[in-house]
Amino acid sequence: MGHILAIDQGTTSSRAILFDETFGIVAKAQEEFTQHYPASGWVEHDVSDLWSTTAGTCREVIERASVPVSDIAAIGITNQRETVVVWEKATGRPIHKAIVWQDRRTFEMTDRLKAEGHEPMVTERTGLLLDPYFSATKLAWILDNVDGARQKAEAGELLFGTVDCYLIWKLTGGASHVTDATNACRTMLYDIRKGRWSTTICDLLGIPESMLPEVRDSATEFGVTRSDLFGREIPILGVAGDQQAATVGQACFKPGMLKSTYGTGCFALLNTGEEPVFSQNRLLTTIAYQFDGKPTYALEGSIFIAGAVVQWLRDGLKIIRDAKETQPMAERSDTSQDVILVPAFTGLGAPYWNAECRGAIFGLTRNSGPEEFARAALESVGYQTRDLLEAMQADWSKGEAQTLRVDGGMSASDWAMQFLSDIIGAPVDRPEVLETTALGAAWLAGMKAGVYPDQDGFAEGWALDKRFEPRMDEDTRQAKYDGWRRAIRATLATVES
Ligand SMILES: Nc1ncnc2c1ncn2[C@@H]1O[C@H](COP(=O)(O)OP(=O)(O)O)[C@@H](O)[C@H]1O
Ligand SMILES: O=P(O)(O)OC[C@H](O)CO
Questions:
Q1: What is the CA(246)–ligand 1 centre distance, in A?
Q2: Which ipTM did the prediction report?
Q3: Which domains does the chain have, with CATH numbers?
Q4: Nearest residue by C-alpha to atom 20 in ligand 1
Q5: Binding site for ADP: which residues?
Q6: CA separation, residue 261 to residues 191, 246, 409, 441 (Å)
Q7: CA angle, corner 369, sides to 363 and 375, nearest 5?
Q8: Looking at ligand 1, which residue's alpha carbon is closest to its atom 7?
Q9: Which of 101, 122, 278, 447 is most exposed by smallest CB count within 10 Å?
Q10: 50 C-alpha to ligand 1 centroid (Å)
Q11: Alpha helices of 291-429 — where are they, by DSSP H?
């Protein structure tokens, strides 16, 4: 009974990874699914894709691992956050496609709520800002726009869930309608201090509380899988949103510990301990994990474009075929040119939160070519991270230049990680296990199952692959960062009247 199955249901793909009792990866499977863009700024997923790729990758891993199912002690789930699913309680049928966290369709709704002065109340309860990013206005949109949805919701016939919640419902054959605190706190409906749904916000948006799931700890019993799915019932014992699972996987258990995950976007979380810290610099307050009913809080900075800027070099500009090519190109680039790319392709996230501005490039000369674009793309991720860390340090006086633990696909780039260390002026630590998100979910479930060590034991097992130390001199660092700040101001000025 020493194996743990981690499900990582992400924005572009679903993955399943089977870990053994020493956190070794026994088998993994990954399946991408179609992104739907029905209108400008809208992003949807077919709910049946989320389920079929999850169930399919789990089955594939179990087959490949040649480990008896009876040897899988538990399942841990981690997931793309904020994305909204609404389904019928009686049939399990979704009433609309999943509206994805990136979807901006409720921009006018959040603007109106801001104009009506609701933002301080929302922030005080949820730790979030009034932005379309979060689940609440997307759920309200479905209730407003799907025929008869609001009446059905009021009659108790519809259920809402973030992706973890929907997957648990499916895995348990409709027996459990539950989520964990790290997912609940991203809905903009959850009071992070009181630890319950906020009646005030539900009333404001016309959302019946009866459709919301029960909120549990991150490592607890969430139900057991239907026996016909994998050949036997398997308990689900761990759940966390993917960025919180990465925080756990990086063993950032002490206040002051900081991780940053570089996938499509970048999400930096700073553990601030048992009391929530409310940002003066437009960062989010979030629950990092919750054990025994006690939340541990974090400050979060969310950047929407990180690895995606490298994808743009590949798919948009077509100047690379593979993300790895950016490293030798950046090394060959002409350092006398200071080309700055602001990748505001979908607006800017923290700490600017400007949904309207778009990307810009500065400092081009006749000699600027693919190498300089590649370098500017990698550097943009370092600059954006420094913006977040500056805001975190301003918000959290105990914070000084900490070590930053990194993970996610883009952290594989030594060049990008060295520049990151140079521009933040602090060490950057990359762990041996880069599947940090899945590892976090596995640890939550395995710890609850008694397979894995407690927090301290797990933290001791965290192993370094490579440390990047700052090499840039202070004057260059400051001059380059000042250039970035000017570029940001100029970009924002394009949409400010
Ligand atoms: N060697 C590399 N150099 C730069 N970027 C990379 C490299 N490898 C992967 N990436 C970027 O990392 C991202 C993939 O990371 P991943 O953690 O799988 O993301 P997600 O979970 O958001 O899909 C892609 O956007 C890709 O462009
Ligand atoms: O699926 P990812 O890795 O892009 O993560 C998405 C985040 O959870 C959004 O908040």
A1: 15
A2: 0.96
A3: 3-234 (3.30.420.40), 251-497 (3.30.420.40)
A4: 263
A5: 11, 15, 264, 307, 409
A6: 26, 7, 8, 15
A7: 70
A8: 410
A9: 278
A10: 21
A11: 307-315, 326-332, 370-395, 414-424
Helix residue ranges, H only, 163-322: 163-171, 181-184, 199-205, 227-230, 242-249, 307-315
Rounded to the nearest whole angstrom, what is the distance from the C-alpha of residue 479 to the centroid of ligand 2?
A: 32
C-alpha–C-alpha distance, residues 248 and 232, integer Å:
28
For residue 276, say if its preceding peptide bond is cis, omega within 30 degrees of 0.
no
Q: Cα separations (Å) of 397 from 333, 390, 424?
A: 38, 11, 17
CB 76 within 8 A of CB 5: yes
Decide: pTM greater than 0.90: yes
Which atom of ligand 2 is the closest one to the Cα of 101?
9
Task: Render pLDDT for 333-371 as a digit per residue (tens, 0 to 9).
Answer: 999 999 999 999 888 888 998 878 899 999 999 999 999
The whole-angstrom separation of Cα 205 and Cα 137 is 7
- Spatial contact of 341 and 330, defined as CB atoms under 8 Å apart: no
Return the ligand 2 atom nearest residue 261 CA: 3
Q: How far from chain centre, in Å, is Cα 286?
A: 12
Which ligand 2 atom is the nearest neighbour of the CA of 408? 3
- Considering every ligand atom, which ligand is closest to the CA of 128? 2
Cα–Cα dist 340/319, whole Å: 17
Instruction: Provide the token pair at 86.
Output: 């609404």
Cα(103)–Cα(333) distance, rounded to whole angstroms? Answer: 36
Token pair for residue 3?
A: 């194996």
pLDDT in tens, 170-188: 999 999 999 999 999 999 9
Query: Ligand 1 pocket, 380 CB below 6 A?
Result: no
242 in contact with ligand 2, CB cutoff 6 A: yes
Phi, psi of 197 (to 5 degrees): -60, 145
Contact 103, 132 (CB under 8 A): yes
- Tokens standing for residue 231: 């050949």
